[in-house]
Amino acid sequence: MVLLKVLRLVLGYSIVAISFITSPRKAKRPPAQQAHINQLAEDLTLYQFYACPFCVKVRRALRRLNMPVATINAQQPEHKAELLEGGGRVKVPCLKIVENGSTQWLYESKAIVEYLEKRCA
Ligand SMILES: N[C@@H](CCC(=O)N[C@@H](CS)C(=O)NCC(=O)O)C(=O)O
Q1: 10 in helix, strand or coil?
Q2: Which protein residue's CA is at the shortest distance from atom 1 of ligand 1?
Q3: Which CATH superfamily hosts domain 2-120?
Q4: Ligand 1 — pocket residues by CB below 6 A?
Q5: Which branch of life, at top level (predicted)?
Q6: Which pLDDT value is given to residue 34?
Q7: Cα 63-93-26 angle, rounded to 5 deg
Q8: What is the mean pLDDT of each run of 10 residues along the chain (121 residues)?
Q9: pLDDT on residue 1
Q10: How far is the CA of 53 from the centre of ligand 1 (A)?
């Protein structure tokens, strides 16, 4: 059990390191367009674990799309509780979307990346 945890940590941090070295380029846009994306990003919060490979995938997409979405460490007890209460389970990545007064909790890295790409298109 402990060995599995250590292995998972080593793998997670290796992926973080590789991702850092191979960081994608940020999209470049005219200032007005970027301001629009920045505004869209204010409605979004990414609940994540730093060394989770699926979270790395979403963070890379955010960088590539140049979308400054706030990230929250879901390992901290108060944020873990928010995620459980709002989304229904402690699974990351999870994107909290606040739109027109309603809140949606989107799980699954693939669905999150697709949603972000659609919002930036
Ligand atoms: N298919 C999911 C996998 C996400 C996943 O397995 N996340 C792990 C952390 S790396 C987790 O939150 N596990 C807790 C759980 O599934 O309850 C995705 O692509 O987002």
Answers
A1: helix
A2: 108
A3: Glutaredoxin (3.40.30.10)
A4: 49, 52, 54, 90-93, 108-110
A5: Bacteria
A6: 97
A7: 5
A8: 93 95 95 97 97 97 98 98 98 96 97 97 88
A9: 85
A10: 9
